[in-house]
Write a structure and sequence with these properties.
seven-stranded mixed sheet, alpha/beta, six-stranded mixed sheet, Arc Repressor Mutant, subunit A, 23 helices, 26 strands, 18% strand, Ribosomal Protein L25, Chain P, 726 residues, 33% helix
Length: 726
């Protein structure tokens, strides 16, 4: 019949592990599982009990097999619920939430048919209230929600040290949502594709005893380069998921390739993690476990799951290499040869240890160990064999009892080897979950390509503010909160996300507008002498740090008879629509209370304007000018670096867009240095990475190149988005 057919179809569609298919089909065919509710309970039971044999009595109890609910029982349960809510029903009539009645009746008779309960509720409510009246048919008025004040909205929208206010869809909230899809600690076997062995449940029990059911994640970077914007998503995801679910996150350096690792990378990686607002539960290294990994490699050989191979690297590259002629060599022989590898009796490339498995992408027998005669920064000359990522990663996760091994989508092809290796050694097996990478347009993040940019002089170093490494973004002035907000907006996606840089810049503007105090600077100074200055010496002008909220304080700047304005704020001829200073068009000087009027224009021999002589008038007695401009007086000399995109095309690595390669796509105007800019003296005590909004110019950050007497500022972003870049 149709109902049985639907149950059979749903069983086949929803059952992940087919080994229990015949078992469930028998119950449906014998009409002992009759409803979708029972089927859902049955599917959950077999998912939660992966080991054979199933306890039939416990299964039947969990699925309501044999439970018979009579119409009289349903009638009595509904009567009891309606009697309990009789007063509210009579008061609210058909505006009452009928779902509440059904839910309470269902809780009393869990295996009853939902449709039958609904029909009984409808019947008894009609008997109590009678037919619906016109008033009953009117929609219930909605209760108005309290609105946040603008200041409160702004407050909850900004990430502080990795946190975000509860009123917005933060990354932490998204990650709590993802927890519904991820397994709970200790329930690894409920994950699709997870391999269950006879020892799985005992190992999970030991795991829970060690962790107490705590969520554990890890961020495992290779210490052979600087972290970039893509890593920011990984940091937020790993640390954020642990934090959102009351767990901990390890920072584990994957230091298995001593040829490329440097101490500066270890330091910079931890610094960037902490800069983004996260504190590792523990800082570990793959090299901490070299002894254990070597012991497990010997055990893998003894179990016939690994062998020493002499094929060259070139022979085993690609997806269809020839099978190894040494795959079936005797265990004792592989043990002796592996020991010879450890003792340095083989040269680099002459021998590897390979695991006996085929990966999802068809790659056969991945390498577990290779010979490298390179001293390790932590273990020195102790080892001349080093484990690979495929061998190390899952076993380090197992040692640290990681619950959720979160990695980017390209590692999906290694999931089978991850599960295989843990199970081959009978050790605790975590679950690998993949998510989409975060990429940006108009940039490159590959370590090799950034090194080429540095070597060719296209950029200064890994922290050049035109790059999108995290050290470069910090140097340019991007606040960590803005980067975290950007990651939250990108979201936790399985698909790869490729974003425009202006979206990151918009996040920076939001944070800097709230946190960067105002100052005044002039990039192309034009000298202005006030001939009727109202005082014999400089006056002090109070300037609000945040004009929209003067309660956040003021700073003082000197106002002298000589001031400097932007060259572009003066024209000898005022065009239609031009509102700033011109010979017959006065302007106000911001924050001073004075308006200036041009009296004399002084030029050099080439005819270039080099000075203006003006008179000033109090703004409260003069006609309101068309514009107010910024200025500086008794200023500090400074250098200002203005940045644009490093590359001209969206995808500089794409041969179809840039046939000549990424180095041919460099933007010649990506950096403009203003050597003789002026800034007001309020910033005199600023330190590297302090941030300001220079009025009318943009957001700027103090560069570490600043010296006594010559400050250097990097422009982080302009005040408004350039429509041409959107």
């Amino acid at each position: 019949d149709k109902a049985t057919g639907t149950l059979l179809y749903n069983t086949a569609a929803r059952l992940k592990d087919p080994k229990h298919l015949g078992f469930l089909v028998d119950y449906i065919a014998r009409r002992e599982i009759l409803t979708d509710l029972q089927l859902s309970a049955a599917l959950e039971y077999v998912r939660s009990h992966p080991l054979e044999p199933l306890d039939v009595a416990d299964f039947e109890r969990a699925c309501g097999v044999g439970v018979c609910i009579t119409p009289e029982q349903i009638e009595e349960a509904v009567e009891a619920v309606i009697s309990k809510h009789r007063a509210e029903l009579l008061a609210e009539r058909y505006h009452f939430n009928m779902g509440l009645l059904m839910g309470e009746a269902r809780n009393q008779l869990w295996w009853a048919d939902g449709k039958t309960i609904k029909n009984e509720v409808d019947l008894q409510v009609l008997h109590l209230l009678g037919p619906k009246t016109e008033a009953d048919l009117e929609k219930k008025p909605k209760v108005a929600k309290a609105r946040l004040a603008p200041a409160e909205k702004q407050k909850v929208a900004v990430v502080e040290n990795g946190d975000m206010g509860a009123e917005t869809q933060s990354l932490l909230e998204q990650l709590r949502g993802e927890a519904l899809k991820f397994h709970k600690p200790g329930e690894n076997y409920k994950t699709e594709g997870y391999v269950v062995t006879p020892n799985t449940m005992a190992l999970l029990k030991q795991h829970l005893a060690i962790t107490g059911g705590q969520v554990r994640t890890r961020f495992p970077p290779e210490p052979n380069g600087i972290l970039h914007i893509g890593h920011a998503k990984a940091i937020n995801f790993n640390f954020g998921y642990a934090k959102a679910n009351g767990g901990v996150c390890f920072l584990r350096y994957d230091d298995t390739n001593p040829e490329k690792e440097e101490e500066k990378y270890f330091t910079a990686i931890r610094e960037m993690v902490e800069w983004l607002g996260y504190q590792p539960y523990a800082v570990t290294h793959a090299s901490d476990y070299f002894d254990q990994l070597y012991t497990w490699a010997l055990e893998l050989i003894r179990r016939g799951q690994a062998y020493v191979c002499h094929q060259k690297v070139e022979e085993i590259k690609g997806h269809n290499p020839p099978p190894s002629p040494w795959r079936d060599r005797p265990v004792e022989e592989s043990l002796l040869l592996f020991e010879d590898m450890r003792k340095g009796k083989f040269g680099e490339g002459e021998a590897t240890l390979r695991m006996k498995l085929v990966m999802e992408d068809g790659k056969m027998d991945p390498v577990a160990y290779r010979v490298k005669f390179t001293p390790h920064h932590r273990t020195g000359d102790k080892w001349c064999i080093y484990p690979t990522y495929d061998y190390t990663h899952c076993l380090c996760d197992s040692i640290e009892h990681i619950t959720h091994s979160l990695c980017t989508k390209e590692f999906q092809a290694r999931r089978s080897s991850y599960f295989w290796l843990c199970n081959a050694l009978d050790v605790y097996c975590p679950v690998q979950w993949e998510y989409g990478r975060l990429n940006l347009l108009y940039t490159v993040v590959s370590k090799r390509k950034i090194i080429r940019l540095v070597e060719t002089g296209a950029v200064r170093d890994w922290d050049d503010p035109r790059l999108f490494t995290l050290t470069a973004l910090r140097r340019r002035g991007f606040p960590p909160e803005a980067i975290n907000n950007f990651c939250a907006r990108v979201g936790v996606t399985v698909a790869q996300a490729t974003m425009e840089p202006h979206l990151l810049e918009a996040c920076a503007r939001e944070v800097l507008n709230e946190h960067a105090p105002r100052a005044m600077a002039v990039l192309e100074p034009l000298k202005v002498t006030i001939t009727n200055f109202p005082a014999p010496q400089a006056l002090e002008v109070l300037v609000p740090n945040f004009p929209a909220d003067e309660s956040r304080g003021f700073h003082k700047v000197p106002f002298h008879q000589t001031v400097y304005i932007e060259e572009t704020d003066f024209r000898e001829e005022a065009d239609k629509g031009y509102k700033r200073l011109a010979p017959r068009q006065p302007v106000g000087l911001r924050h001073t209370g004075y308006i200036i009027t041009v009296q004399n224009v002084i030029k050099d021999v080439s005819g270039r304007v080099i000075e203006l002589e003006v008179t000033c008038t109090k703004s409260d007695v003069a006609e309101k000018p068309k514009a107010f401009i910024h200025w500086v007086s008794v200023p500090l000399a400074c250098e200002v670096r203005l940045y644009e995109r490093l590359f001209l095309h969206k995808n500089p690595e794409d041969p179809s867009e840039v046939p000549g390669g990424f180095l041919s796509d460099l933007n010649p105007d990506s950096l403009r240095v203003v050597h003789n800019a002026l800034v007001d003296s309020s910033v005199r005590s600023a330190r590297p990475f302090d941030k300001f909004q220079f009025e009318r110019l943009g957001y700027f950050s103090v560069d570490p190149d600043s010296e006594q007497g010559k400050m250097v500022f990097n422009r982080t972003v302009t005040l408004k988005e350039d429509p041409g870049k959107a």
